[in-house]
Amino acid sequence: MKGFTLLEIMIALAIMTGVILTVISSFNYHLSLVTRDRENTTVLLLTRAKLEELELLKKDAAQGTETGTFEPDRPDISWKLEIAPTAIALFKKLTLTATWGRERRQLSLVHYLAK
After folding, report:
1. Which end of the chain is less congested by CB atoms within 10 angstroms, N or C?
2. Rounded CA separation 62/51 (Å)
3. Structural domain boundaries in the chain
């Protein structure tokens, strides 16, 4: 007898289907990781630049809160700055929190500034 039986073909197709589905789901998972990492990097760079900008503008501010967005480039990402005193009178604490995405993910950077 030459050739394959129907049972052998069905088993081979089942194995191939399992392998293909595993590869596709793995590819989709890693693609979502790359997208999330790109978003995190973008938000981190924007937040660091904004913190440096606000550090120069708010050098004399004692304490307070300010909010905004990264318009015009990224209006979907909002930021909130909190200036608070520290236990050491010579320093103040700047906390810049960026919020983005449907899940409202957050990233906070803290910087201590000499008065």
Report:
1. N
2. 16
3. 6-114
CATH architecture of 6-114: 2-Layer Sandwich (3.30)
Tens digit of each residue's pLDDT (9 = 90 or more) over 10-43: 999 999 999 999 999 999 999 999 999 999 999 9
Contact 102/62 with Cβ under 8 angstroms?
no
The beta strand positions in the chain, using DSSP E, are 64-70, 74-85, 91-100, 105-114
Going from the C-alpha of 102 to that of each of 62, 88, 93, 99, 105, the distances in angstroms are 34, 38, 29, 10, 8
How far is Cα of residue 114 from the mean position of the Cα atoms in its chain?
A: 29
In this prediction, residue 80 carries a pLDDT of 95
